[in-house]
Protein backbone atom coordinates (compact mmCIF):
# COMPACT_ATOMS: atom_id res chain seq x y z
CA UNK A 1 0.00 0.00 0.00
CA UNK A 2 1.31 3.46 -0.90
CA UNK A 3 0.55 6.23 1.57
CA UNK A 4 1.03 9.90 0.69
CA UNK A 5 3.75 11.43 2.84
CA UNK A 6 2.66 15.00 2.12
CA UNK A 7 -0.63 14.58 3.95
CA UNK A 8 0.95 12.99 7.00
CA UNK A 9 3.79 15.29 8.06
CA UNK A 10 4.91 15.54 11.71
CA UNK A 11 3.81 18.11 14.22
CA UNK A 12 5.92 19.74 16.91
CA UNK A 13 4.82 19.03 20.44
CA UNK A 14 6.40 19.52 23.85
CA UNK A 15 6.84 16.58 26.18
CA UNK A 16 7.22 17.24 29.89
CA UNK A 17 9.16 14.28 31.21
CA UNK A 18 9.65 13.62 34.94
CA UNK A 19 13.26 12.93 35.85
CA UNK A 20 14.98 13.06 39.23
CA UNK A 21 12.28 15.21 40.79
CA UNK A 22 12.16 17.63 37.87
CA UNK A 23 10.08 18.02 34.74
CA UNK A 24 12.28 18.17 31.64
CA UNK A 25 10.68 19.90 28.65
CA UNK A 26 11.59 18.24 25.35
CA UNK A 27 10.48 19.32 21.86
CA UNK A 28 9.24 16.35 19.90
CA UNK A 29 8.36 15.71 16.27
CA UNK A 30 5.57 13.15 16.22
CA UNK A 31 3.49 11.68 13.44
CA UNK A 32 0.79 9.08 14.03
CA UNK A 33 0.95 6.06 11.76
CA UNK A 34 -1.60 4.31 9.61
CA UNK A 35 -1.31 0.75 10.75
CA UNK A 36 2.47 0.42 10.55
CA UNK A 37 5.06 -0.03 13.27
CA UNK A 38 6.16 2.69 15.69
CA UNK A 39 9.75 3.96 15.66
CA UNK A 40 11.49 6.12 18.27
CA UNK A 41 14.63 7.81 16.89
CA UNK A 42 17.39 8.94 19.28
CA UNK A 43 20.05 11.35 18.05
CA UNK A 44 23.71 11.41 18.98
CA UNK A 45 26.29 13.86 20.26
CA UNK A 46 25.98 17.14 18.36
CA UNK A 47 22.75 16.02 16.73
CA UNK A 48 19.10 16.94 17.19
CA UNK A 49 15.64 15.72 16.24
CA UNK A 50 16.14 17.16 12.73
CA UNK A 51 18.71 14.43 12.02
CA UNK A 52 15.77 12.17 11.20
CA UNK A 53 13.61 14.61 9.23
CA UNK A 54 13.97 12.55 6.06
CA UNK A 55 12.28 9.62 7.81
CA UNK A 56 9.00 11.54 7.60
CA UNK A 57 9.35 11.74 3.81
CA UNK A 58 10.33 8.09 3.39
CA UNK A 59 7.69 6.15 1.45
CA UNK A 60 8.77 2.97 3.18
CA UNK A 61 7.94 4.49 6.57
CA UNK A 62 4.79 6.33 5.46
CA UNK A 63 2.50 4.01 7.43
CA UNK A 64 4.62 4.17 10.59
CA UNK A 65 4.26 6.20 13.76
CA UNK A 66 7.51 8.19 14.00
CA UNK A 67 8.90 10.07 16.99
CA UNK A 68 12.04 12.20 17.20
CA UNK A 69 12.99 14.55 20.03
CA UNK A 70 15.76 16.85 21.25
CA UNK A 71 17.84 15.62 24.16
CA UNK A 72 18.62 18.28 26.80
CA UNK A 73 21.18 20.74 25.47
CA UNK A 74 20.32 20.24 21.80
CA UNK A 75 17.83 21.99 19.55
CA UNK A 76 15.19 23.68 21.67
CA UNK A 77 15.72 21.54 24.78
CA UNK A 78 17.17 23.38 27.77
CA UNK A 79 20.31 22.15 29.56
CA UNK A 80 21.10 22.98 33.17
CA UNK A 81 24.55 21.89 34.37
CA UNK A 82 23.20 21.71 37.91
CA UNK A 83 20.99 18.77 36.93
CA UNK A 84 23.96 16.40 36.65
CA UNK A 85 22.81 14.91 33.36
CA UNK A 86 24.88 12.13 31.80
CA UNK A 87 24.19 9.46 29.20
CA UNK A 88 22.57 7.17 31.77
CA UNK A 89 20.13 9.98 32.54
CA UNK A 90 19.45 10.33 28.82
CA UNK A 91 18.64 6.61 28.68
CA UNK A 92 16.12 7.01 31.49
CA UNK A 93 14.63 10.07 29.82
CA UNK A 94 14.35 8.22 26.50
CA UNK A 95 12.58 5.34 28.21
CA UNK A 96 10.12 7.79 29.75
CA UNK A 97 9.53 9.46 26.37
CA UNK A 98 8.54 6.07 24.96
CA UNK A 99 6.27 5.41 27.94
CA UNK A 100 4.52 8.75 27.40
CA UNK A 101 4.02 8.81 23.65
CA UNK A 102 4.18 5.19 22.40
CA UNK A 103 1.67 2.99 24.22
CA UNK A 104 2.29 -0.14 22.15
CA UNK A 105 5.29 -2.05 20.73
CA UNK A 106 7.96 0.06 19.06
CA UNK A 107 11.34 -0.04 17.38
CA UNK A 108 14.24 1.85 18.94
CA UNK A 109 16.67 3.51 16.52
CA UNK A 110 19.76 5.37 17.67
CA UNK A 111 22.55 7.17 15.83
CA UNK A 112 26.08 7.32 17.25
CA UNK A 113 25.70 8.23 20.96
CA UNK A 114 21.99 7.54 20.47
CA UNK A 115 22.93 3.90 19.96
CA UNK A 116 24.65 3.95 23.36
CA UNK A 117 21.59 5.57 24.92
CA UNK A 118 19.46 2.75 23.52
CA UNK A 119 21.76 0.06 24.93
CA UNK A 120 21.76 1.72 28.36
CA UNK A 121 17.98 1.99 28.23
CA UNK A 122 17.69 -1.75 27.58
CA UNK A 123 20.28 -2.50 30.27
CA UNK A 124 18.37 -0.48 32.85
CA UNK A 125 14.77 -1.12 31.87
CA UNK A 126 14.81 -4.32 29.84
CA UNK A 127 13.35 -4.77 26.38
CA UNK A 128 9.80 -4.26 27.55
CA UNK A 129 7.76 -3.21 24.52
CA UNK A 130 10.80 -2.80 22.25
CA UNK A 131 10.34 -5.15 19.30
CA UNK A 132 13.57 -4.34 17.44
CA UNK A 133 16.70 -2.20 17.65
CA UNK A 134 18.35 -0.20 14.87
CA UNK A 135 21.88 1.15 15.29
CA UNK A 136 23.05 3.85 12.86
CA UNK A 137 26.77 3.50 13.57
CA UNK A 138 25.85 3.44 17.24
CA UNK A 139 28.52 3.24 19.92
CA UNK A 140 29.88 -0.32 20.25
CA UNK A 141 33.66 -0.08 20.72
CA UNK A 142 36.49 2.33 21.65
CA UNK A 143 37.07 3.23 18.00
CA UNK A 144 33.61 4.80 17.84
CA UNK A 145 34.63 7.73 20.07
CA UNK A 146 35.73 9.90 17.18
CA UNK A 147 34.60 13.14 18.79
CA UNK A 148 33.88 12.38 22.44
CA UNK A 149 37.43 11.13 23.08
CA UNK A 150 38.78 14.52 22.08
CA UNK A 151 36.60 16.10 24.75
CA UNK A 152 37.53 14.23 27.92
CA UNK A 153 41.12 15.56 28.42
CA UNK A 154 39.74 19.11 28.69
CA UNK A 155 37.88 21.08 31.30
CA UNK A 156 34.82 22.96 30.14
CA UNK A 157 36.62 26.27 29.62
CA UNK A 158 39.40 24.94 27.39
CA UNK A 159 36.96 22.72 25.52
CA UNK A 160 34.60 25.64 24.89
CA UNK A 161 37.25 28.06 23.72
CA UNK A 162 39.47 25.77 21.65
CA UNK A 163 38.44 22.16 21.07
CA UNK A 164 34.75 22.58 20.27
CA UNK A 165 35.35 25.34 17.66
CA UNK A 166 38.18 23.30 16.14
CA UNK A 167 35.98 20.21 15.75
CA UNK A 168 33.19 22.25 14.19
CA UNK A 169 35.64 23.87 11.77
CA UNK A 170 37.06 20.48 10.73
CA UNK A 171 33.58 19.13 10.03
CA UNK A 172 32.63 22.29 8.14
CA UNK A 173 35.63 21.82 5.83
CA UNK A 174 34.75 18.19 5.05
CA UNK A 175 33.57 16.97 1.65
CA UNK A 176 30.78 15.07 3.40
CA UNK A 177 27.32 16.65 3.42
CA UNK A 178 26.62 15.03 6.76
CA UNK A 179 29.77 16.43 8.36
CA UNK A 180 28.94 19.94 7.18
CA UNK A 181 25.36 19.78 8.42
CA UNK A 182 26.50 18.56 11.83
CA UNK A 183 29.04 21.41 11.92
CA UNK A 184 26.20 23.87 11.39
CA UNK A 185 24.20 22.21 14.15
CA UNK A 186 27.14 22.43 16.53
CA UNK A 187 27.33 26.17 16.00
CA UNK A 188 23.64 27.02 16.33
CA UNK A 189 21.87 24.02 17.84
CA UNK A 190 24.09 22.60 20.60
CA UNK A 191 24.82 23.72 24.15
CA UNK A 192 28.56 23.18 24.48
CA UNK A 193 28.10 22.33 28.19
CA UNK A 194 25.91 19.37 27.27
CA UNK A 195 28.36 18.19 24.59
CA UNK A 196 31.11 18.26 27.22
CA UNK A 197 29.03 16.54 29.92
CA UNK A 198 27.83 13.66 27.75
CA UNK A 199 31.26 12.80 26.34
CA UNK A 200 32.73 11.32 29.52
CA UNK A 201 30.32 8.44 29.99
CA UNK A 202 30.25 7.87 26.24
CA UNK A 203 34.00 7.19 26.27
CA UNK A 204 33.89 5.15 29.48
CA UNK A 205 31.11 2.88 28.19
CA UNK A 206 32.76 2.49 24.78
CA UNK A 207 36.02 1.46 26.44
CA UNK A 208 34.28 -1.02 28.76
CA UNK A 209 34.10 -3.85 26.15
CA UNK A 210 30.50 -4.44 27.25
CA UNK A 211 28.58 -2.75 24.45
CA UNK A 212 29.25 -5.13 21.56
CA UNK A 213 28.36 -8.27 23.58
CA UNK A 214 25.25 -6.51 24.88
CA UNK A 215 24.14 -5.57 21.38
CA UNK A 216 24.71 -9.12 20.14
CA UNK A 217 22.72 -10.52 23.06
CA UNK A 218 19.58 -8.42 22.46
CA UNK A 219 16.65 -10.83 22.32
CA UNK A 220 14.95 -9.04 19.45
CA UNK A 221 15.74 -8.33 15.78
CA UNK A 222 18.66 -5.93 15.35
CA UNK A 223 19.94 -3.91 12.40
CA UNK A 224 23.32 -2.17 12.15
CA UNK A 225 23.83 0.44 9.42
CA UNK A 226 27.18 1.98 8.54
CA UNK A 227 28.48 4.32 5.86
CA UNK A 228 30.65 2.81 3.15
CA UNK A 229 33.45 5.19 4.16
CA UNK A 230 33.61 3.28 7.45
CA UNK A 231 33.63 -0.29 6.20
CA UNK A 232 36.90 -0.80 8.08
CA UNK A 233 35.10 -0.89 11.46
CA UNK A 234 36.81 -3.72 13.30
CA UNK A 235 33.65 -5.31 14.74
CA UNK A 236 31.72 -5.72 11.48
CA UNK A 237 32.87 -9.36 11.05
CA UNK A 238 31.65 -10.12 14.59
CA UNK A 239 28.27 -8.60 13.81
CA UNK A 240 28.03 -10.55 10.55
CA UNK A 241 28.78 -13.77 12.40
CA UNK A 242 25.77 -13.23 14.64
CA UNK A 243 22.10 -12.71 13.90
CA UNK A 244 22.28 -8.95 13.35
CA UNK A 245 21.21 -7.64 9.96
CA UNK A 246 23.99 -5.51 8.46
CA UNK A 247 23.58 -2.81 5.82
CA UNK A 248 26.23 -0.65 4.15
CA UNK A 249 24.90 2.74 3.04
CA UNK A 250 26.55 3.95 -0.15
CA UNK A 251 28.10 7.40 -0.42
CA UNK A 252 28.07 7.88 3.33
CA UNK A 253 30.27 8.54 6.30
CA UNK A 254 29.30 8.54 9.95
CA UNK A 255 26.26 10.76 9.48
CA UNK A 256 24.59 8.52 6.93
CA UNK A 257 21.12 9.91 7.68
CA UNK A 258 22.33 13.11 5.98
CA UNK A 259 24.76 11.67 3.42
CA UNK A 260 22.25 9.24 1.93
CA UNK A 261 18.90 9.67 3.67
CA UNK A 262 16.91 7.83 1.01
CA UNK A 263 18.91 4.61 1.37
CA UNK A 264 19.18 4.96 5.14
CA UNK A 265 15.46 5.16 5.82
CA UNK A 266 14.49 2.77 3.03
CA UNK A 267 16.77 0.17 4.65
CA UNK A 268 15.23 0.79 8.06
CA UNK A 269 11.76 0.46 6.50
CA UNK A 270 12.66 -2.90 4.93
CA UNK A 271 13.92 -4.15 8.29
CA UNK A 272 10.82 -3.00 10.16
CA UNK A 273 8.39 -4.48 7.65
CA UNK A 274 10.18 -7.80 7.30
CA UNK A 275 8.31 -10.61 9.09
CA UNK A 276 10.24 -11.73 12.16
Protein model, in words:
With 276 residues, this protein is of the alpha/beta class. The protein has a single domain, classed as 3-Layer(aba) Sandwich (Rossmann fold). Helix content is 38%, strand content 19%. The protein has 10 helices and 8 strands. The chain has helices spanning 87-101, 113-125, 148-151, 156-172, 177-188, 192-206, 211-216, 236-241, 256-259, 261-273, and strands spanning 11-19, 22-31, 38-42, 65-69, 106-111, 130-136, 222-227, 245-249. An 8-stranded mixed sheet has the order 1-2-4-3-5-6-7-8, sandwiched between helices. A hairpin with a 2-residue loop joins β1 (11-19) and β2 (22-31). α1 packs across α2 (113-125) and α4 runs antiparallel to α5 (177-188). The two termini are 20 Å apart.
Write the layout of secondary structure elements.
Layout: E1 11-19, E2 22-31, E3 38-42, E4 65-69, H1 87-101, E5 106-111, H2 113-125, E6 130-136, H3 148-151, H4 156-172, H5 177-188, H6 192-206, H7 211-216, E7 222-227, H8 236-241, E8 245-249, H9 256-259, H10 261-273
Parallel strand pairs: 3-4, 3-5, 5-6, 6-7, 7-8
Antiparallel strand pairs: 1-2, 2-4
Helix pairs in contact: 1-2, 4-5
What would you say about this model in short?
With 276 residues, the protein is α/β, with parallel strands linked by helices. Helix content is 38%, strand content 19%. It has an eight-stranded mixed beta sheet, with helices on both faces.
Amino acid sequence: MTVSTKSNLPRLEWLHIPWNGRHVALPCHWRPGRGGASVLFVHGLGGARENFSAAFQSRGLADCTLVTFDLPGTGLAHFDPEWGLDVTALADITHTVAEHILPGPYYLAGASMGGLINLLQIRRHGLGRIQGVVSLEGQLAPEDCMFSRRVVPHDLVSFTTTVFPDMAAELAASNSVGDRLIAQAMEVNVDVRAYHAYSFETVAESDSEQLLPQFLAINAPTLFLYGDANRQLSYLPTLRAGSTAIAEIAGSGHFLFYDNPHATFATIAEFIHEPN
